[in-house]
Fold these 4 entries.
Entry 1:
Amino acid sequence: MDYFAALRFFTRSAALGSFSRAAEEEAVKVSTVSRHIRALEADVGAALFNRSTRRLHLTEAGRTLHTRAHGILADLDDARSATRELNSRPQGLLRVTVPGTFGRRHVMPHLSDFLGLYPDIRLDLTIENRTIDLIEAGIDVAIRTGTLRDSSLIARRLGAHQRIPVASPAYLANHGPVAQPEDLQALDAMNFASTSDLTWYCRPSGSTPADLRGVTMAGWIRINDYDALLQATIDGLGVALLPRWLVAGAIEAGTLVALLPGYTWSVDTTWGETAIWAVYPPKRIVSPKVRVFIDFVAQRVRDQHDWQ
């Protein structure tokens, strides 16, 4: 038995929940994956999976092996990468996850250029708003927006992620001027569905978090998609607190108006650094394919002068 191949088949089967999907990903027959898993089970003297008609589930023994197998394979990949690093070109399968609206607007339009620059890279892109466990899912790099949770992941800041209150000119014409944050309370607030309450927080730009104040909004619409929330705001259904990278074009076109530009805004009281990030699992050596992808996206973000 090729033990490293068996461990790789094992970890990918666990992540994907299927021998057939692992086989497809690794470009081998399903019987090859099954044979290696059976050999592993015979070697450790325990079943590694509970098999059902829909998905594989790790047993207690499987979970124990899975935790250690990730470290073993990571060390092997690091050793191979260290040996090849000086003469290596970016190549191989690159697994990336990006949030839906940001990915569609600011990553997808540039992928043709990226793959043209690096033809030896094969891209597996997941559009997902949930925060995925990158190690468990076998993801090489994720683009995330907002404030990062504490984790063992390595993060690189790519650009600004500023929220601003916006409304359509027609809506503002019918609901009066907005001169100070409390004026927003008279407007119809629309929130992104993941927002926990209808309080928006602000402080004068350049001030400290001690100057934070909450503005309790009155709202009747929650939407779980940024593009839909943007369209509802343009259509005059109310005021929304949206990322500048989403609304800059509409502001420039005159279909939205930015309100209270002298303030910094948030949907909660967590004032960690809010930005667009590239995050990836900690490794002693960052593979060339990951490094060039992050550099490429960072440059494209810097080129967006209307919202950076």
Note: The chain has three domains: 3-85, 88-160+273-302, 163-266.
Entry 2:
Amino acid sequence: MKQLYRSILVLTLLLVGGCHKPEPAISGYQLLLVAEPYLPLMQQEVDQFLSLYPNVRMQVRSSSTRGAIVSLLNDSVSTIVIDRPFNEEEKQVAQQASIRLVENKIADDGIAIIVHKQNPIPNMTAESVERIVTGTATEWRQVAESHRTGPVDFVLTGINSGIYELLQKKIFNVSKSLEPTTVMTSQRDVIQYVATHPDAVGFVAASILKQGPVEVKVVPVLTKSANGETKEYFAGQLELHESLYPFHYSLYLYNAEAKAAVGVGFSSLVLSQVGQKIFQESGLVPVSIPYRTIQLHAE
């Protein structure tokens, strides 16, 4: 009888051992500023780090993305986690101040589109989303996939948030400022507002929806697959990893320590197998996902 050999490509989180090991001897104090939607996630990373290094004191505080960057550039903190990279203006300020920035991409996430549960809209194309974000569509009847009337209540966090700049400059490359009809302080506030306002449509990090029960409807995006077929996609881990979901972005850890200290050790932990697993279990896509081939033998 012939043996049948099949090669199955298995996606694993067995990160390459030894690539990012925590530093052997670390002590001191560090304040970590984190973009608001990622505070619970990064608290888990810090708790793991402190369990390994009892001589370290580390606090985590939430911040707007722009606020965290300003604090780092003003030398108020030396380590931040934000949901977009430094822009050219910010890089120039750092260079002029002779601040040596170490950038680490640590995970990938997506921007989820949420509406009230009573909103019957089945999906949206990227073009329809852009019309809402740019203010071209201010009524639901102007959104092709919509089956309702009334004004579009575009809900977003403020201009200093990472998701604001991601929508404006990375996703849609809008030259003018965005003009949401309702501006909220945090992404959790966006979720709570949309849950109680039938005309609302909000934009939040996909991973924040996995942090607890939410009373909103997540709208899939219609886009073409690799074979040219139009399909609905949510911001799931596989869809983000394979770039099937169009509204994706990366999470970054910046360190500006003058010499190796707590921040460098923490970066190593975040990029280690243990740290990356925390991201994976929280619904994000880790930055290092190697593949392995397993041979299955069947007679």
Note: Confidence is low (pLDDT under 50) at residues 1-24, 290-299.
Entry 3:
Amino acid sequence: MRRLVVTLGTLSLLLVGLSACGDDDGSGNTGAVKVTGEFGQAPKVTYDGELNRSTTETKVLTEGDGAPIADDGTAMVHLYIGNGYTGEKALSSWDQKTPQVVTLSKDTLPALKDAIAGQKTGSRVEVLATPKDAFQNQGNPDLYIGNGDSVVFVVDILSNVLDAPQGTEKTVSKGWPVPVEKDGKVTALKFAPGVKPKKDLKVITLVEGDGPAIEKKDYAVVRYLGQTYDGKKPFDESFSSDTLEARQVGVGGYIKGWDQGLVGVKQGSRVLILVPPKYGYGAKGSGKDIQGDDTLAFVIDVLGVA
């Protein structure tokens, strides 16, 4: 699946062999755009003439009632990008059927930051961007956008994304695996000696968040660490990565233990999910680290839900 490029740092690797498609001075305003459709659904974007903007225009088409996204916050969004010069869709996360996770920083495209920073969750925002605010007057050859092209962004802000669990810590019975942390990041799970794993799928809440609960077919943004029961080290984890992604729950994109165990978990929660083989990788296991009779233990932070 093609990854969406949203930061100037990664775009710098793509600026090779670029030639302008449209006007290169951005002077004057021409053309218009009409965006229709409901929040959360793919927008219909109609172009009336060649769009050119000398000043970036931001308009809230649908105002949500959720908390605003901080200037340095992270959001789960659906995103449409259109070329104002050609009137063509350049990219849409709706086509990919997967929202994108955008962390705002000094490197975030200015037009994209305009669409997200300070806007309420649940909002649809339109940005008609100058070539400079869209792609720093350099365009994006992967999207067939030239360095003089004004650009249309339509952004649906689906959810804020937390940095860490946020809620009420729960008292947990002795015997369950315990997350081991270093510098605020989970690095491993510690298992109680002599405690055998359960044969059924088990979800243990360590921190109960106060955000929306995951429903089947919702998208969730999580950090996680997985370790076989009594394993010496994790077989997989994302706590050490700066990259976050949204994935749909309950549709087979995860192992069955996640698809079933995450339903009902609230945003802001940290949970343990103990996954017996029939809810994991079955009798065949997975690679050299997971055998067919291994029970898997996961610690999962649910950071965003939409």
Note: Helices lie at 8-11, 93-96, 110-116, 131-135, 256-261.
Entry 4:
Amino acid sequence: EGWSRNPYGAEIVDGWMYGRGAAVSKSDFVTYAYALKALIQTGANLKGTVELHLTYDEEAGGAIGPKWLIDEGISKPNYAISAGFSYGVITYHNGCLHLAVHVKGKSAHAAKPDTGHDALQAANSVMTILYDHKSLLLERESEVEGIGSPQLNIGLIKGGINTNVVPDKVSMRLDRRLIPEEDAAEVEYDLRALINRSIPDLEGISVDVERIMLAEPLKPVGDVQRLASIVQKHASAVLDQDIPQAGVPLYTDARHYAAHGIPTILYGAGPRSIEDANAHRADERLPLNLLQDAAKVIALSIADLLV
């Protein structure tokens, strides 16, 4: 819905390819594969091994993708380069906490609502408190360029039985983005306490909070500066402009490599922002010239690492 092009058509318009996942992250599959193909074709005598990990469960946590590969000892890399865009070498990204909040009451006929306990009314109290908290979060800001403020979003809500019935249960899902300076355990504890405090005086109402996923922020580990500087040097040369080291307000499964002490950055093919790419929404798109540029950057960087 909302697409002006066939989401599966890979249509090219004015140098931009349109399609689902074009920028996040099919572009990086292509970038890395062609970078490696170019290195092979040079016949250069490089030392070391390059592994290409094509995994698919990032938004579900990455537990059966990169995390499994590393936890099981199948992969033991010295460095990791993960999916990203072209105009920044990313050494930080946000974390993410997903919670499910279940507000329970008692159903009743709408003609006699006082014989029940309205879970939707109670859920409204929970949401009001959370939205007030969201406003306070915006007063904080990360010291890392590109990260911004912590964020909170209620992205899904469902409940009720019928129009003429007092709702007995309402569930909602919330997304809390953690900046790198925050402690995930403290954030979750505070959110749970806030939610529980939102309905203390409502008779017959209970609330359960369930963690769905926790993704820790990506932070620099080991000699990541060596890796970032090499990629930054080649990106600046290929794109003919200064490419900064920065952070992004997303979360990725690159964090699993860093959690094992593996220096990790994000770099790949993509425009300046997720807004430019229409990432994860209608008319997702990618400038095709950046596929070639990013492949050059990755190939040159790997060559430097393997001399």
Note: The chain has two domains: 11-93+217-305, 95-215.
